[in-house]
Fold this sequence. Notes:
The protein is mainly alpha-helical. Helix content is 82%, strand content 0%. It contains three helices and no strands. It starts with a helix and ends with a helix.
Amino acid sequence: MNIEDNAANTAQNQGFCSIAEIEEYKSRVKEDIQDDEAKIASLWNSLFHKEESTMPKTPVQKIINLANLGTGILDGVILGWKLYRKFHGFKSKRRH
């Protein structure tokens, strides 16, 4: 079955009597498709492009953000120190 046969069968099943009715149906279907595309686009954008405010709103949030930043920096420094001791200490032990 090709597209023209499908369109003819749909037209017969819908009870279209004239070309004007077919064109009206076609325009309604086209509008429905455009509405669905707009809904899909908005859902897609909301899924991958969530807008978050970068500024904390309350003093408590500012303190929490500062604590999170501080712990992240401290964690990085400790990791760096451990790696430095591991690899630097390994080389110095070999030399002696």
